[in-house]
């Protein structure tokens, strides 16, 4: 893919050079010179065209990545970030649906799908006895080919017959479970964490880059259906919710 172009020039003045490089890049993005999803010039090209050191360019790119304006894909290059998608914490929706609503193509790759025995943590999360059978799935969801979410999910087999035989490249686990055991209650916990090597590899994240982890449990009636850990690259995602209040001051929440 052709990369974005730079304008040859010299960075000078009293402002620290790395900040000038950052301001230069931000200006190009805001003016439309570098479009969302476009690969930016290499560090060597920026060093040559802006007449600054590689250390200066590297710091500018690194900080803009942490600020969410750029995305570094390991082994591929640096790209202008798409506008960060906002995921609603109140509604329980399929990630495939959210991606399609943004005009992007959803794909999913199944990394793991098998029966296991629940360890102590999984048993606690699902309200089962340690050693009880559980279904375990790991999927990587992508938007236009870019990894967006790793879904690591444990399911109570009693609530989801046929789960291990489902085609999760054509439907999401969430869509399957909403038909098998419609959710009546949802628990969400969001945490900022450093991903392990497996999550970093699946999301193609650079070393040292943090991610957001959404811990989700769902109930159908009195039974806990699933306990999932959903991992997102931290620089490119936001979670949001909106509440309304009744006249008596209590909050109104909705679950799907």
Helix/strand order, N-terminal first: HHHEEEHEHEEHEHEEEEE
Low-confidence stretches: 250-256
Count, helices: 7
Task: Quote the beta fraction.
Answer: 25-35%
CATH superfamily of the largest domain: Chorismate lyase-like
Main β sheet profile: 6 strands, antiparallel
Shape: elongated
C-alpha Rg, in Å?
22 Å
Number of domains: 2
Question: What's this, in brief?
Answer:
By secondary structure, the chain is of the alpha+beta class. 25% of the residues lie in helices and 32% in strands.
Summary keywords:
256 residues, alpha+beta, Arc Repressor Mutant, subunit A, Chorismate lyase, 2 domains, six-stranded antiparallel β-sheet, two-stranded antiparallel ribbon, 25% helix, elongated, disordered C terminus
Structural overview:
The chain has 2 domains: 17-80, Winged helix-like DNA-binding domain superfamily/Winged helix DNA-binding domain (Arc Repressor Mutant, subunit A); 86-252, Chorismate lyase (3-Layer(aba) Sandwich), CATH 3.40.1410.10. A 6-stranded antiparallel β-sheet has the order 4-5-6-9-8-7. Strands 1-2 form a two-stranded antiparallel sheet. It is of the alpha+beta class and 256 residues long. The chain starts with 16 loop residues before the first helix and ends with a strand. It has helices at residues 17-30, 43-50, 54-66, 95-101, 120-126, 173-180, 197-203, and strands at 70-73, 77-80, 86-88, 106-117, 133-143, 146-155, 185-193, 211-220, 223-233, 238-240, 244-245, 251-252. The longest helix is centred in the first third of the chain and has 14 residues, at 17-30. The protein contains 7 helices and 12 strands.
């Amino acid at each position: 893919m052709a990369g974005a172009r730079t304008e040859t020039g010299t960075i000078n003045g009293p402002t620290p050079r790395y900040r000038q490089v950052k301001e230069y890049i931000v200006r190009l993005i805001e003016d439309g010179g570098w479009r969302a999803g476009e690969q930016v010039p290499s560090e060597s090209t920026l060093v040559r065209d802006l007449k600054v050191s590689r250390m200066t360019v590297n710091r500018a790119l690194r900080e803009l990545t942490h600020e969410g304006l750029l995305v570094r894909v390991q082994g591929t290059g640096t790209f202008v970030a798409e506008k960060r998608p906002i995921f609603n914490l109140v509604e329980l929706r399929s990630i495939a649906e959210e991606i399609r609503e943004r005009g992007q193509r959803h794909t999913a790759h199944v990394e793991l799908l098998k029966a296991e025995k629940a360890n102590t943590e999984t048993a606690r999360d699902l309200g089962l006895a340690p050693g009880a059978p559980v279904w375990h799935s790991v999927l990587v969801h992508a938007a236009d080919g870019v990894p967006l979410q790793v879904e690591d999910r444990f399911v109570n087999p009693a609530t989801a017959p046929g789960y291990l035989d489902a085609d999760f490249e054509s439907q999401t686990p969430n869509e399957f479970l909403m038909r098998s055991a419609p959710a009546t209650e949802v628990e969400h916990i969001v945490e900022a964490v450093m991903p392990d090597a497996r999550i970093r590899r699946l999301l193609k994240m650079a070393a040292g880059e943090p991610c957001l982890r959404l811990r989700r449990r769902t109930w159908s009636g009195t039974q806990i259906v699933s306990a999932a850990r959903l991992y997102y690259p931290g620089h490119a995602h936001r979670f949001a919710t909106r509440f309304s209040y009744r006249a008596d001051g209590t909050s109104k929440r909705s679950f799907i």
